[in-house]
Specification:
It is built from seven helices and eleven strands. It is α/β, with parallel strands linked by helices. It has one domain (2-221): 3-Layer(aba) Sandwich (Rossmann fold).
């Protein structure tokens, strides 16, 4: 997933999460840029009983935002599951912890989750680019495969070098792009599926519409 700063990826990620939860799909949302309370409130405005979904082990928030800001203890709710948090975020230490978890084995209850990141590129701020990519290749990808995740990592355009985008894309089974353009005095938001490994997709840009409700939440269609 690659998105521009003024594109609606954040809103789209919440919409995807809401649709998945309504269908009983176990979903975990990894937040790097947003307070966990904002995510819960947004999903509740989309009609979900978030507390109930967490109690039913259908939803959890992985809170790296609080961890990296140092504003308190990470808010993971009651359903922490396999995921871990380190006291200070370090990509290398994160990779070592992932390797330890994989050697221990993964329970069936931790497999086949939908996993969304609001902005994976934040990780690049805590290491050099080669370390970021190598840790993702040798730890992050095996972790996702072992858990059989449907994973949506996301990179903010302009946040990392073109070399990082190219290498990151080489790991992906599919690439989705979000962008925004001003047309005739108004902003238009677009989304496309650029590629799907081993498959055929409609790669044309499509308008992504989001409407503000009376409660100031955002809903839409991709």
């Amino acid at each position: 997933m690659e998105f521009e700063p003024d594109s609606p990826w954040y809103e789209a990620s919440l919409t995807i999460s809401a649709h998945a939860l309504r269908q009983g799909i176990r979903t975990e949302y990894h937040t790097f840029r947003h307070i966990p309370g904002e995510i819960r409130a947004a999903l509740e405005r989309l009609g979900l009983d978030v507390a109930k979904k967490e109690q039913e082990t259908l939803f959890r928030i992985l809170d790296t935002y609080t961890l990296t800001t140092g504003l308190g203890e990470p808010q993971t709710g009651s359903n922490r599951g396999i995921h871990h948090q380190t006291r200070s975020f370090d990509v290398v230490k994160w990779g070592t912890s992932i390797l330890f978890l994989l050697k221990q084995g993964v329970a069936e209850t931790e497999k086949r989750w939908l996993h969304l990141d609001d902005d994976t590129s934040v990780l690049n701020q805590y290491s050099d680019e080669n370390t970021f990519i190598d840790t993702w290749r040798t730890k992050g990808m095996p972790y996702a495969r072992t858990r059989e995740l449907v994973q949506f990592p996301s990179l903010l355009r302009g946040a990392v070098s073109e070399a990082v985008y190219a290498k990151f894309e080489s790991f992906a089974d599919g690439i989705v792009d979000f962008k925004a353009r001003e047309e005739k005095g108004e902003m238009k938001h677009y989304v496309r599926v650029r590629t799907v490994r081993g498959g055929v997709c409609d790669s044309k840009w499509k308008v992504s519409k989001f409407e503000t409700t009376e409660k100031s939440s955002l809903t839409g269609e991709l």
